[in-house]
Amino acid sequence: PNYGDAKYFYGAECCANAFISMQNYDLPQLKHYYKIAYEKGAYPDWLLEFGRKMLSSCDNNTILFTGGNADFDVCTYLQLHEKFRTDITLIPIGNIDRPWYVRFLQQGLNGGIRKIKINLTEAQIMDIHPFKWDTTFVYIPVSTNIKNKYGLSKDYKMQWELAPDLSSERMHSKIEGENPQKRKYLSPQRAILLQIIEDNYQDRPIFFSNGVNPFFFGGLDKFFQNCGLVSELLPFKTDKTEHSINCDKLEQLLNKDSFKDYASIKKNDIPRISGMVFAYHSAILLLSRHYKDQKMISQLESLIDLYKKDLAIGFNSEFESQTLKELTKLIQ
What is the DSSP letter of 245? Predict the structure, then answer.
């Protein structure tokens, strides 16, 4: 009834025009397209609240890889028109295989988009293509701050096992007598992701939106620390370790003042992307299980009360009921 998906697609088309403005390094035109998307209702209050929380979950000076229109657009609007967390460089991860966009990130846009370090010449950027590749360990330099924070040795480097993500029907063999295999490649997207991580991880924190399709991570998600709506890239594997979640950031996300505009989703639903708010529910479960493991029962009970009051609002009754069942099990 409120034409939610129409508003989404209007916003997506504004973003498409905004990317042309980036190609032309035209800041006024770039801001214009995000302004009219907002005016047409593409970024309702619940989505703006979500975007602010995404950006607030990142450390200072972060590079934040986002998914598609849902998370990238609202955060870009907040930076351009509310001047909110302009220290962060936003990068839609699926777009980094476009040479013009890699060049744009390298240059930045004064007053609008903060640049990042990319140690490639213009000729190398314009020559981006699939690269012949076998699964290889890549060693990424780590900042002194991170090494000190986690008690890592001075010469410690992150060890990323990077596999090819493309193949062709062309068969080849490298050694005489070896059975022919399909030729494998590293896609331009993954090659530029590697370049950005290599060039910036020593100097800037790197985060990823939890709404990104895991395919784009290239195995980096093994190094993620979940912060609720985003995850931080750590220099070691985190699965089943004490570093798999960041409790401080989850508590920052899930406080009593967190969801002032959440209920507006019932009136201003955008069906194509509204499911992104279930990241809140997942964050509640993560933190609740931590409280259960640590026998922090009063904190667990307070978190369940928060869920009942602010999140179980009848937006998706089936999902909310299932989440409440999981939460209730934790206090039985």
Answer: B
C-alpha to C-alpha distance for 114 and 294, rounded to whole angstroms: 41
Summarised one tens digit per residue, pLDDT across range 66-124 is 998 889 999 999 999 999 999 999 999 999 999 999 999 999 999 899 999 999 999 99
Which secondary-structure segment (H or E) carries 169?
Answer: strand 166-172
Residue bearing tokens 């007598």: 177
**68, 94 Cβ separation under 8 angstroms:** yes
Q: Residue 133 is encoded by which pair of tokens?
A: 């590749």
Classified as helix, coil or strand, 50 is helix
218: left (phi over 0), alpha (psi -120 to 50) or beta: left
Cα–Cα distances in angstroms (integers) from residue 188 to residues 16, 18, 41, in the given order: 21, 23, 35
Give the tokens for residue 111: 């007053």
Residues 55 and 61: their CA atoms lie apart, in Å, by: 11
- Return the residue matching tokens 């998706």: 316
**266 phi and psi angles, rounded to 5 deg:** -70, -35
- Model pTM above 0.90: yes
* Whole-number Å distance between alpha carbons of 273 and 220: 25
Is residue 132 a contact partner of residue 185, using CB atoms and an 8 Å limit?
Answer: yes
Q: For the ranges 4-13, 62-71, 173-182, 241-250, which has the lowest average pLDDT? A: 173-182
**279 in Cβ contact with 229 (< 8 Å):** yes
Give the bridge partners for 89, in sequence order. 63
